[in-house]
Amino acid sequence: MISRNMYKTGAVLMALVTAFTVTGLSGCKSRTVSNEVTTEYDTPDDYNDERPGVTYGNVDEISYYSPTTGSERKACVYLPRDYDESQSYPVVYLLHGMSGSYSEYNRIGALYVAQNAVDDYNRNPVIMVSFTVFTDADGGQESDYDFSELTAKYDACEYDVINTLIPYINEHYSTRTGRENTAIAGYSLGGRESLFLCFAHPDVFGYVGAFAPVGGVVDTGSGERVYGNRGFLLPELVKDVGQQPLVTLIVTGDSDPYCKESAINYSDYMSSHGINHIFYIRPGAHEVSVWNNGLYNFIRRIF
């Protein structure tokens, strides 16, 4: 099992808000152009643990056909506690990063993180779906490609998600549909794809969480390297105000050697283009503690 290191930040301080800058928790800085005047990103010590005496939902393993790879692909469906087919639930699609798979979020405790956030903040219960983001029609492995080639294989997940996986989930589970009931979130390469899919398909996704996202979705003006084979994935993030996500959350670790800069660049781009979003930096590197903290804070703010 992957270790889920936890960082306890200091006591919550009163936020000082100037323009679009918020300084909140000890060791945790954030910038936001959202409607939040004070923002808190602290988490309880047990936020990503199975809490004693708490009932959690089940995880289904499903199989669906992928036109991109020409094969059956697996996914995990995380059901909320007391899942009832006579009720309907909003859905969060979860995307892993490099070397991950459809079961990655099961290994790092997403079911516990989400249910704990729902319980702690009295949010609506959610269905979550995680799948293998890496696509290769020839049966290749991630290790067969350099990072730019690998990124292109992640970018290619778009058609499967929109045209195959989402329709499958809506057909087989009791879901609420529409952008106001559909979210997407991911870490690292999965964070890149989450931003891309949300902003490319604003009619499908209304919420996006990007946890230490790889760059290249849009030209942020930073001059950073662009990976993949398509250049920047989008010419711009939002064509008009009505296409903005209802919630956009970006987080990175303060010692992340890979994606701290790209996360900051995304936030700066959004600020300069009037895109409402939440951005904060927390203690940590490119690691699970940052991603799970992001997921907890994302779940508590949606639906």
Give the integer mean of the pLDDT values. Answer: 88
As laid out across the biggest beta sheet, the strand order is 1-2-3-11-10-9-8-6-7-5-4
- For the CA atoms, what is the radius of gyration? 18 Å
Q: Which sheet architecture does the biggest sheet show?
A: 11 strands, mixed
List the uncertain runs: 1-39
Global morphology: globular
The computed structural class is: alpha/beta
List the helices and strands and how they pair.
Blueprint: E1 16-18, E2 21-23, E3 29-32, E4 59-66, E5 71-78, E6 91-95, H1 104-107, H2 110-121, E7 127-131, H3 147-155, H4 158-172, E8 182-187, H5 189-200, E9 207-211, E10 247-253, H6 260-272, E11 278-282, H7 288-299
Helix pairs in contact: 2-7
Provide structural commentary.
- The model is unreliable at 1-39 (pLDDT under 50).
- The protein starts with 15 loop residues before the first strand and ends with a helix.
- It has seven helices and eleven strands.
- By secondary structure, the chain is α/β, with parallel strands linked by helices.
- The protein has an eleven-stranded mixed sheet, with helices on both faces.
- Strand 10, helix 6 (260-272) and strand 11 (278-282) form a beta-alpha-beta unit.
Main traits of this protein?
25% helix; single chain; alpha/beta; 303 residues; eleven-stranded mixed β-sheet
